[in-house]
């Protein structure tokens, strides 16, 4: 089973890119972030014509997450991260697919830091950590994936000295990610490539993609049930070079049948 995550940076504006990538790579499950569209504007018909079922949680202008499946039933089980009933930002959606609990997230950016947006990011991280403990306690296979807006180590960022005060790389954020993983999750891409430079995002400015001045901020976390079933993974970085594409590239893993 092939599972992918892709921050599309506007699902309608990047729809030709998304559909081309889906046709060329045919992942079984796809988690999307930054839909930047309210629910009624999600391109359900085009996604369906491409062979995918979909559930989504949209929001006007910003955020938005979705889970797509190819030839697999999907059962939505939640679209709000527990812990703050006043938080209405569309950053999380969760579903059961083929015996696996799939959690798709778009963690807050947090800039400028320090400040209210950074505080919101750390608070969101704490809520996520509480919920992931609950997911682990369910004793079922779980995949948590999406745009975490965190570079966990210096290996995950081009010229880390330039990012020391950024909300994606501040010590508090990296510590929160480490603590999350330490609950018992496996960072799938880093497990497959423990010492390699791998990026998933390149800014639109200063020819970042051409210079390979990137960041690894899109991650897969696997519950203990799936660690031994991880067989492959990678980044479709060539998609970042397409015309009118997202500043992220799709990331994917393959899981063997149990």
UniProtKB/TrEMBL annotation:
CDD domains, per database record: ExoIII-like_AP-endo
Molecular function as annotated in GO: DNA binding; double-stranded DNA 3'-5' DNA exonuclease activity; endonuclease activity; metal ion binding
Cofactor: Mg(2+); Mn(2+)
Site residues by UniProt (Interaction with DNA substrate): 248
EC class of the enzyme, as a word: hydrolase
Binding site for Mg(2+): 7, 34, 147, 149, 247-248
Residues annotated as the enzyme's active site: 106, 147, 248
E.C. no: 3.1.11.2
Gene Ontology biological process terms in this record: DNA repair
Residues marked Transition state stabilizer (site): 149
Cofactor binding annotation: Probably binds two magnesium or manganese ions per subunit.
Residues of the Endonuclease/exonuclease/phosphatase domain: 4-248
Record's keyword terms, sorted: Hydrolase, Magnesium, Manganese, Metal-binding
Feature type site, description Important for catalytic activity: 218
Stored InterPro entries: AP_endonuc_1, AP_endonuclease_F1_BS, Endo/exonu/phosph_ase_sf, Endo/exonuclease/phosphatase, ExoIII-like
Similarity remark: Belongs to the DNA repair enzymes AP/ExoA family.
Record's protein name: Exodeoxyribonuclease III
Source organism: Arcticibacter tournemirensis
Source species taxonomy: Bacteria, Pseudomonadati, Bacteroidota, Sphingobacteriia, Sphingobacteriales
């Amino acid at each position: 089973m092939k599972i992918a995550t892709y921050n599309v940076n506007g699902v309608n504006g990047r729809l030709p890119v998304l559909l081309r990538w889906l046709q060329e790579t045919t992942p079984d499950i796809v988690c999307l972030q930054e839909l930047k569209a309210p629910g009624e504007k999600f391109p359900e018909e085009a996604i369906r014509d491409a062979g995918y079922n979909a559930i989504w949680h949209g929001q006007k202008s910003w955020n938005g997450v979705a889970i797509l499946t190819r030839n697999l039933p999907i059962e939505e089980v939640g679209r709000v991260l527990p812990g703050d009933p006043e938080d209405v930002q569309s950053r999380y959606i969760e579903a059961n697919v083929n015996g696996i609990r799939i959690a798709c997230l778009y963690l807050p950016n947090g800039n400028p830091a320090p400040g209210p947006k950074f505080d919101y990011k750390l608070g969101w991280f704490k809520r996520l950590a509480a919920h992931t403990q609950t997911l682990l306690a369910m004793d079922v296979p779980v995949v948590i994936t999406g745009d975490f807006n965190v570079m966990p180590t210096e290996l995950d960022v081009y010229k880390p000295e330039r990012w020391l005060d950024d909300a994606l790389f501040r010590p508090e954020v990296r510590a929160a990610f480490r603590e999350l993983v330490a609950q018992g999750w496996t960072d799938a891409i880093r497990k497959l490539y423990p010492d390699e430079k791998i990026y998933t995002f390149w800014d639109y400015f200063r020819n970042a993609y051409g210079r390979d001045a990137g960041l690894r901020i899109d991650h897969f976390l696997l519950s203990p049930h799936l660690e031994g079933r991880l067989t492959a993974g990678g980044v479709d970085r060539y998609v970042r070079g397409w015309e009118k594409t997202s500043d992220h590239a799709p990331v994917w893993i393959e899981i063997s049948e149990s």
